[in-house]
Amino acid sequence: MSAPVTAPPALEAQAIRKAFGGTVALGGVDFALARGSIHALIGENGAGKSTLIKVLTGVHRADEGTVRTDGIVRHFSSTDEAIGAGIGAVFQERNLLPHFSVAENLFLHAPPRRYGFLDRGRLKRDARVWLGRVGLDMSPDRMAGTLTPAQGQLVEIARALALQARVLLLDEPTASITEREATVLFERLRELRDEGGALLFVSHKLDEVFALCDRITVIRDGRTVLSNIERTALTRGDVVTAMVGRTITVGERRTEHAATPAATGSPRLALRGVETSWGHRGIDLTLHAGRIVGLYGLVGAGRTELARAIIGLETVTSGVILAEGRPIRPRSPRAALLAHRIGYVSEDRKGEGLILSHPIRHNAGIAIWPRLGGRLGLVTPSGERRAVSPVIDGLAVKYASLDQDVGELSGGNQQKISLAKWMASDVDVLIIDEPSVGVDVRTKEEMYGVIEALAARGKAILVISSDLAEIVRLSDDILVMASRRIVSSLPNTGSYQVLSETIMHAIVGAEAPLHEEG
Amino acid sequence: MPADTSAGARAWLPLLLVALVCSAGFAVLSDRFLTSFNIYVVLSSATLLALIGYSQLATLAVGDFSLAVGGIGEFTGIVLGYLLHTAGWPLLPAIVAAIAVALASGVLNGLIVVASGVSGFIVTLATGGAFAGAALAITETTPYTGLPAAFNFLGTGRVGPVPLAIVTSLLAAALLGVLYNSRRIGRLMLAVGDNPEAASLSGLSRREAVLWAHSLSGLLAGIAGVVATAQLHEANPTAGTGWLIQSFTVPIIGGTLLTGGVVSVFGILVASLILATINDGLILLDVGPYWVTLVEGLLVFFAVLLGRTRLRDLLAHVTARAATGRLPESGAVQR
Ligand SMILES: Nc1ncnc2c1ncn2[C@@H]1O[C@H](COP(=O)(O)OP(=O)(O)OP(=O)(O)O)[C@@H](O)[C@H]1O
Ligand SMILES: [Mg+2]
């Protein structure tokens, strides 16, 4: 017996098929993950990326095909068995126990024990170490239910790292974190690779893919279209073409920017010297009809909390909010919507934006029920379908039927439904928090088109985003928030390079003194 | 007490105040309230209430329900009555055997839930009825009386105002406190109750948690059945009639979440004491039994309000800020 010339892949999938009822999610996918490499898995929303990861980790059982680790055939029937075989994963959806501490969430699979009892001292010490590795400085005693989506994502990444698995599968780990946190994460991933780890990385951010990954696999409609190709042999154009199945151009920034009429009349919504219980100070912000304002900042800068204060979910302690020049103080999102026609698309789609066990048409139509109701106030399924289907098709949602539960859609498609809900509604002011988290490159363009069309119809729009490229692509004006203040306000010149340097400078300048205080 | 630090688990704190105010009121209004015997009566019924509450707490922890608490309690009492009365078994083996039957009933519930995938609510609706029916069939509705004096003493013996039986509820509290705080199984049950999806994706077994929860619930219902039998001096097949409502009232007042994942072991002791006090006081004041039920209902309502309102969230927010000295969101490092 001679030793094999090359070692078998750390993890390998062959001819995997998986269908959910009539929907074929995977129609024969081949995939191999080698030791000492970071492998990108790319595909449009609904292509089957998450399903493949779930098959590889025993969450789903494949209808056909085989999974091997180090050449040995495996039939995982639970994540427990996959973890046992050295495979760790961060799934696309957040999976934390809200009433458990961050520390316990980190070591859920194998908490430290002493004489059979949970060792809380060691739990906390170990937790600090792993939190530090992903750049999180928070008390390990914090309840996971109080974390923001970005913090939750980082905690889950830390949890996967703490498993110290040889194979790590990451499903859109950077979806809700900013570049800065991602940079820390990438350092860790490169270390793991250099130690011989096998990593799978799913992302819709091609910049990241090209900066981080060694190999690329692209799937489309549940089939492999580019299999295990060296990154250096591919261009972005190749990858996008493979994903989409045809050649498309991905826009740089809105070209019709010059056509946006200058602001006239009183602003739709204005904040003057607003302070909140969250610590915002002296916030000035002006939203004009037909214009898009981008609010950029790092995770934790306080952007979401400002939006929540505008719609009455946080307390405004001083300053004024003006709608069409008149002071308002909405007490609830409902009041903001009905009395002042202000809509807010939450960044926490799953927690706040969608009812997963309800059909697509319900979820997309929920904000327009008052309008849909006929003379008797009855909302009929067909009325609902008629009202929501144009919007849903405009966002290229991949679904089997409008009566399908939203929970069955892929992550990115769920995202689109929560946006569709507000696009269908008739508001004057729309605040959109992280519009394109988890949305593929093609749909991103379509989504931007929809947002621009809304602005063109006279709506005033505030886009909150941690993706600077997105801000530059969409906004007429850019605001930068750091430590709950607006530290910079600039017109969009369209030059990504110049803007990004100016903005980072503003953020660093604003934050440095705060750190010294703390 | 870490299992009691999570949201909702401190809902009993204001209730302690309610209990003190009520007690003071009753003491002023009735000179029979603060007597040694009356305190014994209150502690006795609080003991039984706490055990009934713990039996339900066990299933609530995993986000499930048991409607079989009363049925298992009655069935256990009748098995015990039969062994002591008809079969003439000695005390200790009879008690152990009866509790083993209760445990087996709980395991059966758990196995059915896990194997069928049907919710515990429906499964125990059926099995609970079956256990209660079996108790009635065995006795043909006639209670076993004339139980050994030593056994009756366990139920109604007292040292001054303190009933001997209180040992059972205090011991249950101590053991459950350790279980839910520090033991793998306890944390597993709470994890599954808190977010079943997340727990399962982290490699934890939902089936294991649910099986344990129902088994534990059966065991505790059995202990309640034994205590009830000893307190009554008879094994009565209808002893558990009112237990169903009580089994939910006590944990809810105590701050255990109906949705799972958060239990308050200590809260059960406080809640059972309050219910027993109010019940006793109202009877001493000659308030009709229907009014007692009404007051209990209102109490549950206020407990839930106190436990779940924004007022509490606000307090939690303020204390969190005071504790860390900074705003919650600034936890993410920005360098
Ligand atoms: N539990 C389910 N029931 C029914 N259909 C499902 C289920 N899970 C996934 N699907 C379908 O399988 C297909 C692939 O979904 P998957 O989540 O793998 O996509 P994805 O590539 O991860 O997309 P995204 O980029 O949006 O996360 C989709 O059409 C989706 O609707
Ligand atoms: Mg996905």
UniProtKB/TrEMBL annotation, chain A:
Pfam families linked: ABC_tran
Matching Gene3D superfamilies: P-loop containing nucleotide triphosphate hydrolases
GO molecular function, one term: ATP hydrolysis activity
Keyword ATP-binding: yes
InterPro entries, per database record: AAA+_ATPase, ABC_carbohydrate_import_ATPase, ABC_transporter-like_ATP-bd, ABC_transporter-like_CS, P-loop_NTPase
Keywords, in A-Z order: ATP-binding, Cell membrane, Membrane, Nucleotide-binding, Repeat, Sugar transport, Translocase, Transport
Record-linked SUPFAM superfamilies: P-loop containing nucleoside triphosphate hydrolases
Keyword Acetylation assigned: no
PANTHER family: CARBOHYDRATE TRANSPORT ATP-BINDING PROTEIN MG119-RELATED, D-ALLOSE IMPORT ATP-BINDING PROTEIN ALSA-RELATED
Name this protein carries in UniProt: Sugar ABC transporter ATP-binding protein
Automatic annotation (TrEMBL), chain B:
Pfam family, one: BPD_transp_2
Keywords noted in UniProt: Cell membrane, Membrane, Transmembrane, Transmembrane helix
Molecular functions (GO terms): transmembrane transporter activity
Membrane topology: Multi-pass membrane protein
Gene Ontology terms: cellular component: plasma membrane
Transmembrane segments annotated in the record for this chain: 37-54, 66-85, 91-114, 121-139, 159-180, 209-232, 252-276, 288-307
Compartments it resides in: Cell membrane
Principal subcellular localization: membrane
Protein name: ABC transporter permease
